[in-house]
Amino acid sequence: MSKRYFGTDGIRGRVGQPPVTPDFMLRLGHAVGSEMQTASRRLVVIGKDTRLSGYMFESALEAGLAAAGADIALLGPLPTPAVSYLTRTLGGCAGIVISASHNPYHDNGIKLFAHNGGKLPNHDQQAIEQRLEQLLQAEYLPMSAVNRIGKARRIDDAAGRYIEFCKASIDVDISLENYRIVIDCAHGAGYQVAPRILEELGAEVIAINNQPDGLNINRECGSTHPQGLQQAVQTHNADLGLALDGDADRVIMVDHQGRLVDGDGILYILASERFREGRLSPEQGVVGTLMTNYGLEQALARNGIPMERSDVGDRFVHQKLLEHSWQLGGETSGHVLCLDKSITGDGMLTAVQVLQALARRRISMAQAVDGLQLLPQIMINVPLGNSCWADLQQHVKLTDAVSAVERQLDGVGRLVLRPSGTEPLVRIMVEHEDNQLAAGYARQVAAAVQELTQNA
Question: Is 101 a catalytic residue?
Fold first, then answer.
């Protein structure tokens, strides 16, 4: 059954435009409370990032949940993975995050976790949507008996609990006391806890973009805008830097010279460390996505480590890991999963794992990625217009063009065609060590797509 409101990562949109309205959130809270409560679990955990609209949506969700008879634990601004962790440890029946991740402040959204801290399964999302449709059509919101209305409380030590969780993910003999680290908090959910985690592990920490005002989240900062971090690392003569996104579930890093180490580089460092420790082998591989750089696949293959690709999105990475009983996977954007450490992607936990690998081997970030040669990637977006992608991709002109390019790339590069999940576009990506050849191959396939859309 298709879902109307839930996308691949919850509900997201422009504040004030359906479904991101207070009225909708009130009813969503009621639907979550109604569907997720059990005889032994009635607590719903709510966290948020630093967007101004978070106050409004937090109150609306709280009211809806209470009306449905659910109790509420309010965490305040905390990273999305912290909400996942606390949903599980507080014995919640569900967790709610109010965030639009790396989007600007005028967007907001909802992410939901199951009682174990994992992403909410499809059948639960569908059940919530069915209840939500009924509530949206009702004139009045139903309410539990007065003596069954839910209660809300603030968890004052929520930040401390999450900090200890991250610190406990590395070995007790590891200290960061010799590191000077710049951290870009994106004026987001990690602005308080992220610097404290590094400080309590012994590092000298220089925090930037850690003064949220409700409107500046992700504004020219964070993991999607690393230029400021790259400059700050060099200005402060730091050993390395890391940047979170608005809800702190992803991280990218830079070395001491300000050179970017994205999710592919982070996966390489973690995979190399696990291989060195004997925890990665032909039986225990790594999951990337369709957009993961071919250079990472080649580097892993040199050590006999298999890599498989999922669709783009951490949900799909997680599914592929579970299918193989593997532990390590992630996306180029910096959303990394270490399932032996946490059930969900976690920017700070990932950063701490990388820092442990560097500290244990006493090497720099630059040395850690020395064996990884990422291939140039050329991306071309072609508007679909009124064309149907399912029809176009079967057309002989396109299949012939794709086959011709794939023959040229066999063993030395890669071609990816995929429709955008948010726009009427086809994304064409080519990887090859020769940037000009990659661009030529991408234009060749793009021309075939454009010809078909113009003649449709």
Answer: yes
